[in-house]
Structures are given as structure tokens and as C-alpha cells.
Amino acid sequence: MYSAVVSDVNQALQFGIEHLLHEGVIEDSRNGPVLAAPGPVCIEYLNPRARVLLSKTRDANPFFHGMEALWMLAGAKGIEFPVFFNSTYGQFSDDGRTMWDAYGWRWRSFFGWDQLDGIVEELKKNSTSRRCVLSMWNASSSNEEMWTKRCSVPSDDIPILMSPGDSNDFYVATHSGLAVPCNTHAYFAVRGGRLNLTVMNRSNDAIWGCFGANAVQFSMLLEYVAMRVGVPLGSYFQFTNNLHVYTEKFSREKLEQIAHECDTLGRTPEPGPALEPGFDEDLKIFMEWANTAIATGAVPLTRPDLSTPFMNSVAQPMFMAWAYRKQNDYAASASAISEIQAPDWQRACREWVERRKK
């Protein structure tokens, strides 16, 4: 097994690519040839909040990464919000309206209860608990009739059909389902007074998943739970049983260039404000405001009054910058980006938009 300890996601991406380039083997997959690690890979992030990628060749969309993580913490499953930031996202929806594998939905309601609430309560009562397991993979008994219905019923019926007893993920995966969870379980544990998170992954694309979207999603999940429990952040451990890259999408030369850019970034920008109590209330207000803007197709003229620094001075201007950019108003987008009070997110957003203009 390959393991590495990194300071931030850019170093993680560098180390992951170098491991694949030096030790990877070419294998077939259902989506084409991959360069795969010969065994499991585990990365420890010492600073989970340093989660923003900056390689221009990797060209990660920071708006999508940040907003998708908020969509997950809100426990949502409808595709309208993430599709607003990534037009290709909907291709993985079986019904064209929802995501069967939506992590936030599975964290907060899929199994009939809010797992995050339970984990927070347990860690507050017993900080030495070793039983705080977050489940994302559904292993309930399969139901062929319900799965078939789920792919064909009107949208209003989908919430009724989507329940743990409908279909297990193995059944869905082997019966033409477009997406089942890649990250299957996660473990929270307080060690040395700090909250650690270990995420288990069955199969992970290194570029888009492991060191891209997943690094943002689960580091924010760790920060959120730590905030609610009232303990400092510890390490984020990212374990994948099959780390790979698709060779038809990323040549060896392109991978080498990305690794080089990550290695020569120099001092990366500091993370912005941390999540604070009041986040849940702000997130609910923000999602209602953002979803209304998405539904109407208009840039919102007024902004909600949010109380926490991250939601007010990072998430809100990021949304505005993207909304203006969608309407090709680059001057207004640049102005909104300048309001982002997080050096890492601001730089990534500014550089990503500049690359689009060029």
C-alpha cells in the first residue's frame, strides 16, 4: 500500500500523480483504459482546510467544488443546483432530476435519519467513541420492481420511491444504474483532542474525484462536524482501494505537467474563515436564495442577511460571481470575486475565470 502525508490538496495531487506515473499499471475498465495504482492508497491531509486546487493545467472549477460541497451539507439530491455550476453533472442521473448516489442525501436522510446529528451527539457525550461510522453505501435487500419504477415514474413520485428498501447499491450498479457511491463509509474519531476523519473509497479517479471534488467535499464535512462538536480539526485520511486516471483523458505528459505545477506553486494562499455556529441556519437561507435565482435564471438583485463569515463573505460572493459569469458579465463577475474574503478561493476563482476569457 502507498501512503503519504501532505500539507494540502495540491501536494496530495502531486504525490498521487507521481505514484501513478512511477508505479501505475495499465488496466481495462468499463469506461476505458486506466493507469491504476498497484494497491490501495492512503493520504493524510495535515491541513484539511487547504482544499483549493491551483494547477492551471488541472483547471479545476472552484465554483463547482465549493458549491457542490454546500449542496451536500444541505442534504440535497436534486440536480438543478450542481448542474448550474457543471452542465455535465446531470449525465449521471438515472431519472434526470435527482442523484441516486448523492452523498449529502445519504448523510442526512436516505437511511431514515440524520447520521451527522447522531455522530455529533455521540462525540459530544463520548469523545473516545470508536463507533461513529458514517454510511454511504446502501446494502439493504434489493427490489427489482422498485428500481425499474424509479427510472420511469413522474418526478413527484420519486421521493416516495427513493427509500432504503428500494434497491441496494450493488443491485443498482449491476443493473444499469448510472451512479452509485464511490466513497462508501467514513469514520470520525477524536484523537489527541482533535477530530479526525477517515474516508473509505472503493474506486477513485485521481484527477476529478480523489484530489478534486472529494478533497473539498469531505474536508468540509470534517470541518462541519468538528465545528458542531466543538473540537479543533485534526487530520483527514483519504483511503482508496483503486486509484486511477483515464489515459484517454490524461496523457503522461499532461500528468507530468500537472504534478510539476503543483510542485512549483510556492506558498499557497491561506484558507479563509472557518465554519462557525450558525452555519446551518445560514446554509438553509443561502440554498433557498440560490435555488430561487437558479429557477428564475436571473442574477439576484438582493442578497440575504447571513451571520457567519464563510457564508456571507465567501459562499455568497462566489455564487454571485458565477451567476454574472453565466451571463457573460465579466466585469460584474470580477467585482464579486474581489469580495471573496478567502485568499485561496478568491485566487482560484479569479484565475479560472481569466482562463475562460483567454
Summarize the structure.
With 358 residues, the protein is α/β, with parallel strands linked by helices.
General description of the model:
By secondary structure, the chain is of the alpha/beta class. Helix content is 45%, strand content 14%. The protein folds into two domains: 2-137 and 181-263, Thymidylate Synthase, Chain A (2-Layer Sandwich), CATH 3.30.572; 279-357. It is built from 14 helices and ten strands. A six-stranded mixed beta sheet has the order 1-4-9-7-6-5. The protein has a four-stranded mixed beta sheet with strand order 2-3-10-8. It is globular, with a radius of gyration of 20 Å. Residues 153-165 have low confidence and may be disordered.
Radius of gyration: 20 Å
**CATH topology title of the largest domain:** Thymidylate Synthase, Chain A
CATH architecture of the largest domain: 2-Layer Sandwich
Helix content, binned percent = 40-55%
The gross shape turns out to be globular
Q: Write down the overall mean pLDDT.
A: 93
Major pleated sheet: 6 strands, mixed
- β-strand percent reads 5-15%
Beginning-to-end CA distance, first to last residue: 42 Å
The CATH superfamily of the largest domain turns out to be: Thymidylate synthase/dCMP hydroxymethylase domain
Could you name the ranges where pLDDT drops below 50 across 5 or more consecutive residues? 153-165
**Spatial order of strands in the largest sheet:** 1-4-9-7-6-5
CATH class of the largest domain: Alpha Beta
Question: How many strands in all?
Answer: 10
Briefly note the structural class of the backbone. alpha/beta
